[in-house]
Amino acid sequence: MSKITTELLLERAVPRSTRLRKIETLNLSKLQLKTGDLDPRLFSRLRHLQKLDLSDNLLDKFPNSLTLPDLRVLNCNNNKLEDVTALKQFPLLEELTYENNVYLTLNDDYKVMFLLQNLRLLNGKDITKLAKHVRCVNSRKLTSKVTAHWEKCFRHQLPEKYTAEQVKSIKKKFLKSVQTNVVYGPSSLSEFTRWRVKMIAEEFLAYSLGLEINTDPETDENMDESEEESTERPREAAEDAAKVGDFSSGLTNVTVTPRKRKRNRSKSGSGNKRSKSQANAEEEAEEDVSAEPLHFLQCHSKGNSREDFKTQLWSCVFEPLLDSGARKDPIVSSSRTVATCGGESVCLIDCETGMVLKKYKVATEEFFSVAWTTLTMVISNSRKKSHNILAAAGRRGIVKLIHVAADFCYGEIKAHKKPIATVCFSPTRETHLFTASYDKRIALWDIGIPDCDYNFKASQLLVLEALSIPLRIALVPTCPDQYLLAGCEGGCFAWNIKLDKEQKSRPFEAVFQFPDEDGGMTTSHRVDGLAFLNDDVIVSKSSKPGCIYLWSWSRCFDTKGRGSQQTVSAVILAELEWSTTDLSYLTLSTCPAKEYVFCGDEQGSVWMYNLSNYTAAWSSAKGKRSDKRIPPTQILKWPELQANGEQLSEVLVNNVVSDPTFTYLVVLTSVNITAIWKKS
């Protein structure tokens, strides 16, 4: 029978308590306690415990699931502890003492400093600076050595097309070899180095070959399968959160599962009523069921709270594939890894498994936009290698630059004094980044290429002056180095961005006018959706409620015209049937390879339009405007989701994006849910 009972806990509370959940300080010292006496079911009721004294007992280890989410101070002096890695379950721990545990060494001190990101005092000493060195410099050096060992000794052993058995064999050999051959720091820390090297190597293989990382089986057994998926990932080269944020380990990403799916025909009740034409569109959409839901993830919660259904999710973009084949799926020809942002965090998600691969957080930020680029970096011995870099920006007007494979935010650009609404990289110049801000400016930056120590130099090349806040930007596919379009609060504009011109600050070159509700033409309207369907056809939204326009770039704008500003009538090719809502900022996207347009609505639905039967006619010299509005090919209805026993309602789809081959569809909502659909 356990020595610890509810009565004992209430009695040993400081001060004494009548409820377990009210206990904040608990003294369990000198009770001859063994590990088996720490009952996880009983300790899980101590939800607000902040200080725990377990000194002068007989503990040899900690159970993996004590569930003390608010624990800040822990005293384990004078026990028989042999391992400290289970302490990672207390991520908020600030003060830790475990003196006079004869089996613990300096290596365990370093493990604790790495695992506990908030730890300030260890055995009475301030370890803040040393811990930062362990998490950042040490991790960066070891990551570099592990990568170099793979490139030198093992990459050539892996054939271009490999089997699962070949991967398993190489993984076993690599993990054994890398722990033997990668040496760093004093010999007194060799155990810690081997521990970190194995951790880094496993994560490197997971990214390079798509392997799963070993997780703690005891933790997995105690997981609530209906709500929570947890991936334990090492925290590597991350800067201090106050400066450039940090990558999180032990991510908690709540998976909300649908109880049943709604039929495609919507019921009247909540939200705006559908028009007759919209009802017909939905009936037609029922004929083509081509996508099924895979995952519903709650991974952007503030403070990892399961109760957060308010954080807005804004932007997502699929990671480009590297020539080296990093994370390539043997079946899917495009990347299945997507970066999403909202609230204080940016997440990297594997769409097939629903696993959150990475999570990057800045407590004082609200991220609005993310964008990928691929840089060729010098890694060692003057050798060059391609790496994907993620840019993330938002309310603070700062662009964070993240080397994802290294788990390292290597720098930031203070781009604007007001929030950044959206960012995008040039498709032809990998270091050129556009940032569109609430200061009514669009800036072009050269972010440079970081060296092997992550030193880089960013410079501003151009400033485009707007008359109102730019919400969406798009480079013209046929001339991405010459023209940029922007959908703004006050209309749709075009700028000449050619860098051979001396003028660094430029006004717009053209403003586009569209039909208004009275049958006339107007330039004054909010354009909150803008994308190219192909080299010529532009898709834009919010000229008026219930309508998405498709129009021609080449027919309405003469790129040979230079100089003065001009008002240009958009040459409309077609209109798409959409919701009658007047809500703004429900943006659209396109999949050019499959000729699809996607747009979410105010009821959680995704409207999909397959336009492959229309584009040929539009591209012909005599192509005429489609007389009737084009209905959606399919409408994906929002399922009935249960979260904490209650049904999620009033779901807005802020953004929806497919991968380049339209295998996966990622839906970002106003209720902190990322929905992932897969095309059948």
Automatic annotation (TrEMBL):
Compositionally biased residues, Basic and acidic residues: 231-243
Keywords: Centromere, Chromatin regulator, Chromosome, Cytoplasm, Cytoskeleton, DNA replication, Kinetochore, Leucine-rich repeat, Nucleus, Repeat, Telomere, WD repeat
WD repeats: 413-447
Region (Disordered): 215-290
GO MF annotation: an example: chromatin binding
InterPro entries: Leu-rich_rpt, LRR_dom_sf, LRR_LRWD1_dom, LRWD1, WD40/YVTN_repeat-like_dom_sf, WD40_repeat_CS, WD40_repeat_dom_sf, WD40_rpt
Biased composition (Acidic residues): 215-230, 281-290
Domain of life the protein comes from: Eukaryota
Compartment annotation: Chromosome, Centromere, Kinetochore; Chromosome, Telomere; Cytoplasm, Cytoskeleton, Microtubule organizing center, Centrosome; Nucleus
Gene Ontology cellular component annotations, sorted alphabetically: centrosome; chromosome, telomeric region; kinetochore; nuclear origin of replication recognition complex
UniProt main location, coarse: nucleus
Biased composition (Low complexity): 267-280
Coiled-coil region(s): none
Keyword Nucleus attributed: yes
Cited PROSITE patterns: LRR, WD_REPEATS_1, WD_REPEATS_2, WD_REPEATS_REGION
Domain Leucine-rich repeat and WD repeat-containing protein 1 WD: 290-679
Domain named Leucine-rich repeat and WD repeat-containing protein 1 LRR: residues: 7-200
GO annotation terms (biological process): chromatin organization; DNA replication; establishment of protein localization to chromatin
Keyword flag Cell inner membrane: no
Family: Belongs to the LRWD1 family.
Protein name in the entry: Leucine-rich repeat and WD repeat-containing protein 1
Provenance organism: Rhynochetos jubatus (kagu)
